[in-house]
Amino acid sequence: MNSNKYLPILVCGFGAAVLTTVPYIKSFSCCLIIPAASFAALYLNLKVDNINLPITIKPAVVYGLLTGVVAALFSSTFEILITFITHNNDFVATLPQTEAAMRSLDLGNLLDQTMGLLNKMSSDIVTNGFSLLYTIAITFSNIIIDSVFGIIGGIIGMVVINKRT
Q1: pTM recorded for the entire structure
Q2: Which of 49-88 are b and which e, b meaning 16 or more Cβ less than 10 Å from the residue's Cβ?
Q3: What is the average pLDDT value for the chain, to the nearest integer?
Q4: What is the rounded radius of gyration, in angstroms, for the C-alpha atoms of the chain?
Q5: Rounded-to-integer distance, Cα 80 and Cα 137, Å
Q6: Are residues 76 and 123 in the same domain?
Q7: What is the DSSP letter of 6?
Q8: Domain total of the chain
Q9: Which domain holds residue 106?
Q10: Among candidates 31, 117, 128, which has minimal Cα distance to 89?
Q11: Rounded to 10 degrees, what is the CA torsion of 63, 69, 74, 79?
């Protein structure tokens, strides 16, 4: 087994995670940065391991999935560290607008329970810089979203690389 096999995944996943912490670039993370990182990981793997072309769907999906998971874990870690240091994040800043939007839906008792949890998470972040529920939620959502878009990027990368050769 080649020890360089997972290096493109780690490098591209880490690079994507760093880019997803930049405030204005963060908006493009799911639809542009993560698929581009998966494409780059697949391309770098092609150059490092001298893989025979054409690339099949299985390595494209695996590289996309693993790049997405690595990016999600690193970006969640960065988000949690920044939140811990600053005692603030986008969730805390947008909670009043979220509450106003949810109140307009008139959900009744469900809204009160949901807002109770969200307000507890927000107060934990403001007072301690850390909320376990927020950490679990952000990590889980990042893994799901980044994995899906990583797989899409891996498949697009496979198609592009196979057409170029």
Answers
A1: 0.90
A2: eeeeeebeeebbbebbbbbbbbbbbbbbeebbeebeeeee
A3: 92
A4: 19
A5: 11
A6: no
A7: T
A8: 2
A9: 88-128
A10: 128
A11: 140
Residue 151's CB is within 10 A of a number of other CB atoms, namely: 22
Whether 73 and 137 map to the same domain: the answer is yes
Identify whether residues 77 and 112 lie together within a single domain: no
**Segment 104-124, tens digit of pLDDT:** 888 888 888 999 999 999 999
The confidence band for 1, taking pLDDT boundaries of 50, 70 and 90, is: very low
Amino acid at 23: P
Instruction: Name 91's Cβ contacts closer than 8 Å, sequence gap at least 6.
Output: 121, 122, 125, 134
| Pair 81, 121 in one domain | no
With beta carbons less than 8 A apart as the criterion, state whether 35 and 67 touch. Answer: no
Whether 76 and 149 map to the same domain: the answer is yes
Residues 114 and 35 in one domain: no
